[in-house]
Specification:
Blueprint: E1 24-35, H1 38-45, H2 54-67, H3 69-72, E2 83-91, E3 96-107, H4 112-130, E4 138-148, E5 155-156
Antiparallel strand pairs: 1-3, 1-4, 2-3, 4-5
Helix pairs in contact: 2-4
Length: 162
Amino acid sequence: MSRLTHLDDQGNANMVDVSDKQITFREAVAYAEVQMRPDTLALITEGGHKKGDVLAVARIAGIQAAKRTSDLIPLCHPLMLSKVALELVPNGERNVVEITATCKLSGQTGVEMEALTAATVAGLTIYDMCKAVDKEMVISAVKVLAKSGGKSGDWTAEKATC
């Protein structure tokens, strides 16, 4: 079993030292979804929400969150992201908004946490903007779909279970 890297020799949590790691291109893609009632999804897709364009606001919130991940997640490295992109796709068959976040950089550590944070905060923003009309929305299926770069190399989820 591999040793957790956030623990020092005494078993205390610490920030991992990446000083000796090589700078490489790194990318991560994460996913989340927000399940809602059909009328709530229609409100979002038809642009009838009194608070404005829900998906545009969620996209901006996700981008901002990715940039602030180290402020939110203890022991996360502050990173200079070169790209954060969010795709928010309403799926009327399943009554969900599917959120895909992609983060990129050239650096010494990965961007999985930034992508996960972006997808999750975008989902939370959708919930916040729509909770007055649908309190039973569910944010779920939060996961990393793929990552590339770094010492551990490339990884892609075997099968999308979303």
